[in-house]
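User: Some background: our group keeps a shared notebook of sequences we're curious about, and every so often someone picks one and asks for a predicted structure to add to the entry. Today it's my turn. The entry only has the sequence so far, pasted here. Could you supply the structure so I can complete it?
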Amino acid sequence: MKKLLSLFCLFTLLTAFTCEDEPLDDGINSGSNNGDTNVALIGSWDLTDFNVTLQTSTEFNGLGISSDIEIQSIEENYVLTFTESSFTTNGSYTYDTDIIVNDEPAVSESYTLENVSGSGIYSTSGNVMTVDGSFFEFEFEGMEDSVLEGEQTGTFAISADGQTLTFSQDETVSQTDPTTGTVTTSATSSTSVWTKQ
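Assistant: Of course. Here's the predicted structure to add to the notebook entry:
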């Protein structure tokens, strides 16, 4: 049960891709980039850090299960390249994963993913980016899964000097299974930071 809960929590957590507030560069267009160009985004960005935190609680028949997942990058050799409306990713990265279930450490492991690549399209409105594709892939206990597939929305900020790009997403979701009455609440906070090549 611990393994399944941890796996469920990990994949719920990894639907996020951003965090951290920085002032937006004046060069970013407001409105959608359908036909417009976010000049400040276009080009290649090197990943310098990513972290994700997920807190999940599940209630079923008076029993409660809680888990905390912390993911932190420790080595990054990964590039995100934007054109006017699409992106590609490639490279490798290593991250630590720590999972605590009901206040007891359950898993603490490091993972290295090599030859990772992805692609997709994006649009922006002010400092909100909607992405259809995958920025990252993750592995958990020997299983690989691509996250951020399908449409995801988060905020982004570019530093005043145009050299640092930060994505962030904070989200809380509560779901009730109508069949079993199980209530699951998940709070996710994630950040990725990139520097211009």
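Suggested note for the entry: The chain has a mean pLDDT of 79. The first strand starts at residue 43 and ends at 60.
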